[in-house]
Amino acid sequence: MNASASATWKTVWTDAGCASELVDGGAGLRTLIPGPGGEVCAFVVRYEGQNFAYLNRCAHVPVELDWLEGAFFDDTGHFLVCATHGAMYEPKTGLCVDGPCRGRSLEALDCRIDNGRVQVRRQQRSAHA
Ligand code: FES
Q: Is 70 exceeded by the pLDDT of residue 129?
């Protein structure tokens, strides 16, 4: 991929669904976003009144987190949990606070609301990933 193509995918906002479908501490939204090696899965969750978006890729092994599609929170509604080995992440920071990848983080994405739709994009500093 050349430099101009790389610059294009980094700045593309991708629709993730209707903002009203996000449940605080509950159901999230998934979408595919462009990346240097092809599309990758991303997700958005709502927590304490704010929206947060991450790549759907565990910091332990690069697999998707959700145990059911769109189900990212644990039973308490305060941590994102990986279905594979149970890593627990802070919703606001993406930091793993318990599990095999403790101290590592999910890759955060930009997130915005446009006309009631949630949009996400890869952050500029993630160009290498
Ligand atoms: S793959 Fe997520 S905790 Fe192991």
A: no
